[in-house]
Design brief:
The chain has 51 residues and is mainly beta. The protein has one helix at 44-47; strands at 3-10, 16-24. The longest helix is centred in the C-terminal third of the chain and has 4 residues, at 44-47. Bound molecules: zinc ion (ZN) (2 copies). Residues 1-2, 26, 28, 31, 33-34 line the site of one zinc ion (ZN).
């Protein structure tokens, strides 16, 4: 599955704040969130997953 990877910056006081979100694509054509998701007509409800 695709997911967002959140990196954190940690200050000297050990306080952490979110830095950046990286979008990780699973590159599976059966994944609705992937950019490679099957572009042709198919049974999306049966064949594909999303999260
Ligand atoms: Zn995915
Ligand atoms: Zn689909």
């Amino acid at each position: 599955m695709c997911y967002h990877l959140v990196t954190h910056i940690e200050y000297a006081c050990s306080h952490q704040v979110p830095d950046q979100r990286h979008y990780i694509d699973c590159n599976q054509w059966t994944c609705r969130l992937s950019r490679l998701h099957n572009p042709t007509e198919h049974d999306c409800m049966q064949q594909c997953t999303a999260m």
